[in-house]
Amino acid sequence: MQQLVQLIWQDKKDVLLALLAGTISGLTAVALFAQSGLLISKAALMPPFYVILILTAFLKLFGVTKSASKYAERYISHRVTFKFISIVRMRFFKQLLPQAHVLNNYKSGDLLTRITSDVEMLQNFFLRVLYPPFIALFVFLVTILFTLFFSPWIALLLLIGIVLTSIVIPYVLFRRPYPTGAVEKKELTVQATEYFYGYRELLLHNQLDTQKEGLSALHQAYGTARKKELNQEQTAYLWNQTIALFTSFTVVLVGAYLVSTGQLEGVYLALIVLVSLTVFESAIPLSMAPIFAKHTKKAVDQLEEVTSHQVQDGTIQLRDLAQDIQLNNVSYHYPSATRPALKQITLAIQAGEKIAIIGPSGSGKSTLLQLLMKELRRTDGEFLIGAHPIDAICTHSIYTHLSTMLQHNHFFSGTVKSNLRLAKLDATDEALQTALNQAALDKKLDDPIFEKGGNLSGGEKQRLAFARLLLKESDLWLVDEPFTSLDVQTEKTLFNTLLSQSARKTLLMVTHKLTNLDQFDRIYVMQQGEIVEFGTQEQLLDKKGLYYSMYHKNS
């Protein structure tokens, strides 16, 4: 919360102007009604005409001032809020972008709620939490000092009423925590997002109605929880209004008694009563301040949870990745997983070698590739590129000299050309077309690509990703199941292209298929997160171990 105050205070000129305009608006509202009460009382006594004229002139002055200051207060306070929200949003995204990999730990609906609703919720911090108490304090203070000139008893009554409405009632009603088990908005958003993302699968498996019923029940539960919260807010508002009216009624009784005993001139009674009715208008926003403060704090906590996973990047800039790679007893454990994904992995890759990693599904092959890409950070062991620990190397420096082709590749809405140029921005049309031809993809550069490659088949997606791989001039190629969606002849052609184009590069390929592995310098066989054997294909066949059984099972 302190950081939010500091961010708002960066625009202190507008903040002070908003506070000034709000204070003037509140005071002139009190003065306007006070002047009206005095004018009514004076008029009943038939004073000289110039007295009525002067009082009427002040009445108009207060009316114009109230309207102008109210407009200025709304305009400036909202300008402060919008500027504050823009700063918060930019700071949030700047903190989020360098660590986008942590988004895998959150569901899409949860992220959507945090990025949109939680950021928007912070607009209430100035308008509903920070701003109203200052305005109310100034207006109450001046009003109580003003009423002291007429009667200390009246001032004391107003003070008691103000303390009850602005402090006691809000914090008594809102100090209770939210009910245990109450459905939150993010839960509903998560389930709704899952419903829309998985609509086709739910429809195909005849589970659409079941999921819809669950989502409807969650919506009703959220509506019930929200209704309780609104009832709590209305209760606070009702109590505030009741106390304000009761205070004004008490002021009437005490004022009448003071007039009857000669302690107060009767002409001022209407003035004091109207002042007591008007001053509590500043207390109405305070009844909502605690709940907005609670919402704001919750939003801040949820945003900080996303951006708190700060990972210190390395500073060493590599000139190339034509260097040896060494992993010594490297392990990795996914959060909340029951067993490690990688366990005591030791391997050495010399620059320019062709390495294949094979093993059954779930053996940790893709996880190992993510460690090499620095998408994941090992939980134990030593990882060196050349003579440098990978944590000391700048991630951007690694990606500059790294080409990848993964199982799932993202394609942006645009054209074939725009998607290819992700690999090489300055590539000519001739170079792009050559890459398409090498990837055996019968597409034109200006052909459209839908979001996520929606108009591409699985094989076309793999060939387009392969064209990207060929375009980028890098030293280390990491490929994960590159040609699983292709026919045998096309797979063979592209595999030969892969080996020929990576002749002087380091190639690390993850695969289930055991064909053509005799062309690799070394094969690592993984099982349950461990490397159980390695060597050339000939050596592994001679050992008659796991690779031998897999080879003959697939042959």
List keywords for this structure.
555 residues, alpha/beta, four-stranded antiparallel sheet, 19 helices, 59% helix, 11% strand, elongated
Describe the structure.
By secondary structure, the protein is α/β, with parallel strands linked by helices. 59% of the residues lie in helices and 11% in strands. It has helices at residues 2-9, 12-44, 49-96, 108-121, 123-148, 152-174, 185-197, 199-204, 208-260, 269-279, 289-307, 365-372, 395-400, 416-420, 429-438, 458-471, 488-501, 537-543, 546-554, and strands spanning 325-332, 342-349, 354-358, 380-385, 388-389, 402-405, 414-415, 448-449, 476-480, 506-510, 522-527, 530-535. The strands form three sheets. It has a six-stranded mixed beta sheet, with helices on both faces. A four-stranded antiparallel beta sheet has the order 2-1-4-5, with no helix packed on it. The chain is elongated.
> In which order are the strands of the major sheet placed?
6-9-10-3-11-12
**Low-pLDDT sequence parts:** 178-182
> What share of the residues lie within helices?
55-70%
What number is the mean pLDDT?
83
Our count of helices gives 19
Gross morphology = elongated
Q: How much of the residues is beta strand, in percent?
A: 5-15%
What structural class is derived from the secondary structure elements?
A: alpha/beta
Give Rg in angstroms. Answer: 36 Å
How far is the N terminus from the C terminus? 65 Å
The main β sheet shows up as: 6 strands, mixed
What is the strand tally? Answer: 12
